[in-house]
Amino acid sequence: NDLKTVSYVDDFYLCDDASLIEGKIEYAIQELGKLGWHINLEKSCFTPKTECKFIGFLVQTGVGDKAVGLKVPKNRIDKVNKDIKRIFKKGQATARALARIAGQIVSMTKAVTPAKLLLRNLYRCLRSRTSWQDLLALDMETIKDLRWWLKAFEAWNGKAFRHQNISIEIATDASAEGWGATMFPSGLKAQGYWTIEQSYKSSNFRETLAVLLGLLAFLSQVKGKSVTILSDNVSAVCYINMQGGPAMELSRIAREMWSLALKYNIQLKAQHLKGVLNVQADTLSRLSSQYEWCLHQKVYDYLNVLWGPHTIDRFATMATTKCIKYNSRFLDPASMGVDALLQGDWGLENNYVNPPIRLLDQVLDIMCRQQATATVIAPEWKAQ
């Protein structure tokens, strides 16, 4: 009979098209009776509605694809806000009071997307307790999160039943040298190298950061879409799906990732992908950096005084660029365009060009064709 129902212990919620719901209600009552269930008629509602309360949530079934599915009732929001205001008024909080707030917010995660994301600092604060009666000092990050709940709760209250059908997969990987990401089904690629500081971080840090950098690199392609992250790192997958975790560094990356997803309406989730299957992203992350050179900063500064200010670095990455604007070999979060030789704006910029030696002929050709001004770094070959 195709009953569309949700059950939680002895609570049942039934939904269907308006023309079919009456018959489905009668059938459900009969079948539950046959199975030995006793229906509490006083607590039950048999009148079809487009909004009803079910296990602490408002279930709304409006018209159209944008109809909200679940919302937190106002009385629950008011209760959380009251507890938070009480803490701010006193200027301190017991571990029990903070735990009560955390428990209330956790129970709302089905209807409030960033709920878990904005609880991580609160949990870290609670871990410092020795008993539930302890008075805990709130750090600025925890205070900031609690203020968010007071100001922005209502704006994020509600999750739709229906989601975007357009799905994109992004496979990411990280090595000791760099990171790589591939987007499916388009086949777009993004890649970059770590700074010295990043290269000494843990593999979990690099793998999680690779996901964030991949999202940023493909941002224009993933806005408003459903995105599945494929990673061979279990910790990265967990921190994305759980919106953070115990490690502060990884939680900060996850928070930035989810902030991006919320801002640009990206439905984000992560899945584990076996390393042997993550071939393309792995290859990108291991590209040799032997050609990733750049001038010493003092030398560049001298050239910039002579012939600058330069407005764009034509052959660079996030780690090596000398200008705010740059072109890169692959997509990366801040690149103005992939492959400098395919760009049509050379004549509009004061170009800084430090290319691979084998590309010098092509660089001179594009400069002539576009009548470009440039400072070109090249070897002094007196015999040629």
Radius of gyration: 28 Å
Order of helices and strands: EEHEEEHEHHEHEEEEHHHEHHEHHEEEHE
For the residues shown, what is the average pLDDT? 88
CATH topology of the largest domain: Nucleotidyltransferase, domain 5
- End-to-end C-alpha gap: 85 Å
Which percent range fits the helix content?
25-40%
| Strand element count | 17
Instruction: Give the strand line-up of the largest sheet.
Output: 11-10-9-12-13
Q: Supply the helix-strand structural class.
A: alpha/beta
* Domains (count): 4
Shape: elongated
Beta-strand residue percentage = 15-25%
CATH architecture of the largest domain: 2-Layer Sandwich
Can you put this structure into words, describing what you see?
InterPro entries: DNA/RNA_pol_sf (IPR043502), Hepadnavirus_pol/RT (IPR052055). Helix 2 (74-90) runs antiparallel to helix 3, helix 7 crosses helix 9 and helix 7 (203-217) packs parallel to helix 10. A hairpin with a 2-residue loop joins strand 1 (4-8) and strand 2 (11-15). The protein has 4 domains: 4-70, no CATH class; 74-160, Alpha-Beta Plaits (2-Layer Sandwich), CATH 3.30.70; 167-285, 2-Layer Sandwich (Nucleotidyltransferase, domain 5), CATH 3.30.420; 297-376. The chain has helices at 21-34, 74-90, 95-106, 120-126, 140-152, 196-199, 203-217, 219-222, 234-241, 248-263, 279-285, 297-307, 360-370; strands spanning 4-8, 11-15, 51-54, 57-60, 68-71, 93-94, 135-136, 159-160, 167-174, 178-184, 189-193, 226-231, 267-272, 312-313, 325-326, 350-353, 373-376. The chain is an alpha/beta fold. The strands form 5 sheets. Strands 11-10-9-12-13 form a 5-stranded mixed sheet, sandwiched between helices.
